[in-house]
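Action item from last week, closing it out:
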Amino acid sequence: MNSTIRRRALGALVLATACATALSACGGSSSGKKGGSAASGGKTVTVVSHDSFAASKSVLAEFTKETGYTVKVLRGGDAGAAVNQAILTKDHPRGDVFFGVDNTLLSRALDNGLFDPYTAKGLDQVPADVQLDAARHRATPIDSGDVCVNYDRAYFAAHKLAPPQTFADLVKPQYKNLLVTENVATSSPGLAFMLGSVATYGDSGWQAYWKQLKANGVEVVDGWEQAYNDRFSGSSAGKKAKGDRPLVVSYASSPPAEVVGVTPAPAESPVGVATGTCFRQIEFAGLLHGAKNPAGGKAFIDFMLSKAFQQDMPLQMYVDPVVKGAAEPEEFVKYGAKVEHPTTLPPTEIAAKRDDWVKAWTSTVL
């Protein structure tokens, strides 16, 4: 997810379930009627995504049973790199559907004419506040998640120190030299965390906030994997790597990722979430302009809004479903952090100011 987000970065933990797999998808016409059988080999939908795209075999089998298209997945690094590559190849698109552009990069994709309009079946079951392109329906919301500071419960218990909960807490003396974050210019979660500080302190105050963070010893690394797996003391990988930073910019879904598959199941995750530091990310799919198989692409987007796919996502890509009534698995509910009031910014504002913010952050912090 840079390291992958998407959305996204934590999904790498379960990516093996779907890597290098030929999937099956819908369609034979734009109406979503069944096409030829997958066995015929003549019906292929190509999905371009980031490295963390994953879906369980049982859900994909259901998809195959209902339809006749074979889906080929092309993964292109983290979300930012995948979007940039899609823009560079837009005159000769590599696939039919793009999945994985989030609200921090959405305007870049739309301004470059990456997607054709399509109103997906099931969109009426998606809340209006995540339909950021509702006027034209070029981008269909698929999932959401929150980038937040995570903390190592064991460290703070051993030091009899309350973990931070807000952006303001992170600059307090008791948290000096404890936080590691990702480079805003190379990492999706790093960019989201910076945007959270902009949303909190405004154009006039966010750079001063980062000067305080720098003075308080924040460490900056290139991407999520290095931050979470190498430097963060609270992750299972971080313990092995002897990471010494008990605070890290990651996701609200980090806690369940740390306990899924652990037996016996712990009472709580070793990782906690500072819920006052979160920035809401929304991930979208779009029908690539110039797609060779637009009918199949539309059918695949429809499927991504089905409850089968939506309810599969939490433990595959560690994101939240956007469809109303889609249930989350028990592990996600028990261990995941619920963020009631995440920060956010309008995509138009991000589009207008993102490059300047990144340059200013680089000058201030690096």
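Closing note: The two ends are 21 Å apart (CA to CA).
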